[in-house]
Amino acid sequence: MLDSTIDTLRDLLGTDVVSTDAEVLASRRRDYWAASALREWRGDTMGEPGCVVRPRGPEQVQDLVRFCGANRIALMPFGLGSGVCGGVLPTDDVVLLDMSSMSRTREIDEHDLLATFDAGKNGLEAEEEVAERGFTIGHWPQSIAVSSVGGWVSTRASGQFSTAYGNVEDIVYSIEAVLPDGELVHLGKAPRAAAGPDLRHVVMGAEGTMGVVTGVTFSLRRAPESRRLTAFHARGATPTDSMALGIEAQRRIVQSDWRPPVMRLYDGSEVARNFPEHRSGDDAALLMVHEGPAGRVDAEVADVTRIATETGLTVADAGMVEQWLESRNHVPTWTDFFERGAVVDTIEISAPWSRIVDVYAAVVASLGQVEGIVNASAHSSHVYRSGINLYFSFAVLAEVADMEDRYFECWHRTMEATAANGGGIAHHHGSGRLRIPYLHHDLGAGGVELLRTLKGAVDPAGIMNPGNLIPPPPR
């Protein structure tokens, strides 16, 4: 980036807002995508932004966006860097818009149950602040301690308690955002509206390609009065049959209108890895958290237990659930695996009840054909009336030179097997650059073209996070 451009930005925004410090640039050259971490660990040359801008408020975001638009400079929003699909890959002609300095709590309204934060607010800090007043946002992604509330919106995130409390789109009340022309908009002003299409969804899930989320208002819940834990084993003739049995129990529970906020079904491989002391052969294990008013929780536990046992599950030690609650956000770093000669990742998909077992069997079988594969497993973590999510995990042993090829082969096999068996290829981590080749499976050719058209209308200069999310037009 030209020194004159950086000087102009400093005159516009302030010298303390615009940084070209070498350590700052290096720290903002990637998000938490495994492939980027692998390249950095191998010592590959990686791009860095031309400068990092840390605005103090929406007005400075507007000034920056207008400047970049007028000068055709690419602008890449960055929350707290927890994304795992390659949404952040800057080059030296890019201004990286670091939202971490915009971290205020603007208002907590205890009457209307609304909480408004700057987009750069740390998710765990936001939750702890509302918890002090007896409330919860109800959004608990594994990354809660290292992700921003604006990042939740930008990736259409889902939390571990989503079966009862919903995904981020169910929790968001309104969004403040700066559009690519510098206009500040407030999307959403009432509990529900029929004033045309819901424009919140123009920026929700857009991963920085349609504008910059600068503020978020959530609809809160009161902290639950009671919590109880249950666990069950599911044993079938094969690992797939065991998963099918556990999936059927979840279908019956949810379609009976019970909503345990946490419903997690682990296949036998994941039980052995995560809960070895609770292992029962190759059984799958269904873990649930029940919370809310005490009377409702008691009734839910009683009926869920009845449904599970009538489906063929057996009661297990609820200590598994306690263990999960204590350790759910503790994960090794990517380099821990690289240094042991392994490349790993998780891939979340979803499908209707009628297709999910086929998706599970097909993906595990396809991953099993990858050279060096040592683990191909899955658990469910988000449940709906009409379907369910699966979270696949893979681990491949490979020489350093082959790790990246094996990584992308695992992703390709998972995406293609999921789509071929009627599943959706992205559930809650967004798409980033990683899923671009597979978006047509979910959107269709017409939907992909509509996405390009929307991008062209909202961001005609193409400055917002170019190369991310939007498939390029056919040649």
Structure description:
With 475 residues, this protein is of the alpha+beta class. It has four domains: 99 residues, 2-Layer Sandwich (Uridine Diphospho-n-acetylenolpyruvylglucosamine Reductase, domain 2), CATH 3.30.43; 118 residues, Uridine Diphospho-n-acetylenolpyruvylglucosamine Reductase, domain 3; 102 residues, 2-Layer Sandwich (Alpha-Beta Plaits), CATH 3.30.70; 87 residues, GMP Synthetase, Chain A, domain 3 (2-Layer Sandwich), CATH 3.30.300. Helix content is 38%, strand content 22%. The chain is built from 17 helices and 19 strands. The strands form four sheets. Strands 12, 13, 14, 15, 16, 17, 18 and 19 form an eight-stranded antiparallel β-sheet that branches. α10 packs antiparallel against α15 and α15 packs antiparallel against α16. The protein is globular and about 70 Å long. The model has no long low-confidence stretch (mean pLDDT 97).
